Amino acid sequence: MRRLAMAILFTALVSSAQTTPLLPDSRARVQPGSTTTESWIVVPPGTTISLVLTSPVLARSAKPGDAVYAAAAFPVAVKNQMAVPPGTYVLGQIDMLTRPGWLSPHAQFQIHFTKIIFANGYTVELAGPVNVTTGQAPAQPGSAALGEQLAPADDLIAAVATPYVQVSSASDVLLDNGSQIEMVLQVPLRLNAANVAAAVRVSNPSLLARLKSATLCRPIPATPGTPDTVIPGTPGTPGTPPTVIPGGPGIPDTVIPGTPGTPGTPSTILSGTPGTPGVRCPNPPVVTPNLKFQSYQQSFQINAPVQISGVQLLAGAYQITWQGSRPWAQVDILQNGKRVVSVLARVVLLNRKSPADAPGTGTNSDGTVFLQSLRFAGQTFALYFDRGKA
């Protein structure tokens, strides 16, 4: 009887165990859509994204802090996979503006971007200058390699544009609807592949073709005016000469006086109306490259040996020179006036001046140290040496 009771109790315990639900944390580990199963697209720093302005920047009201609205004009792909389809919206903000003048008919902007909104509503907040960790995010495919490209920094701007615009000081628009500018990524852009794929299916880039100029200027044609009106006068009469009747012998001639002539009347001139000059509109703003390349020369100090582009830099003082436009520049590193190495670097913009010269380094898997970046005291730019670039 005792054995029968124990058998019944054992059966009841087994049945109870089979119907006990999973613990909440166990369900969380097997939920579909977990971040451990998501795939990511990582757009590398230095990538340029062509944008079209969807809202104008007006000459009278434009100022730092104003929003800039644009959309991707050309697709961006990474490893044969669409990353940013055309028509994707981008939100930015003006940081700096130089207005055109009579002697310098151009405007120059510095714009940083804060948000990317895909056609399906997928929104990516671009990392602000105070929370950029540049590759220290959760390990996902591709992120480890990109983590070697940038040192952790809190002064990097995630994405910027520095358009140079040929525009008259008389224009009412500094950047018109449809103006094309280039957004440069300064840190890796990490995108959810599934959300991007869904956005590609609903993107409609044809909307960009409907943009119209925002200028209010309308040309006024010139008028030729009217010529003078001439009313002819009347001609004068010549008059008649005296009539002489000869007298007889001893009788004088008889003279009958003639009639004097009458003067004519002059022509009457009615003045015409003068013409009016036409009113021309200034040429539309055009985004062009800034052909006035500035030459740069900076000095820096290395306290321990580092490698760059396969060349070992020993501890000591160095100089670095380059000319160029962002985001890429070929730089020469010199010591005592002699070139040590020439290497391709990314010129990145910072949100504040560097307090001191600051070489940034990284460590390879074999323990060797490589030069990763250079900051310069008092400057709002830095150089980054992406590995694999020559």
Characterization of the model:
With 390 residues, this protein is mostly beta strands. Among the domains are: 37-210, Lipocalin (Beta Barrel), CATH 2.40.128; 293-384, no CATH class. The protein is elongated. The model is unreliable at 1-36 and 129-152 (pLDDT under 50). The strands form 9 sheets. Strands 22-25-26-27-30-29-28 form a 7-stranded antiparallel β-sheet, with no helix packed on it. Helix content is 10%, strand content 38%.
Summarize the structure.
This protein has 390 residues and is mainly beta. The chain is built from four helices and 30 strands. Among the domains are: 37-210, Type IV secretion system, VirB10/TraB/TrbI (Lipocalin), CATH 2.40.128; 293-384, no CATH class.
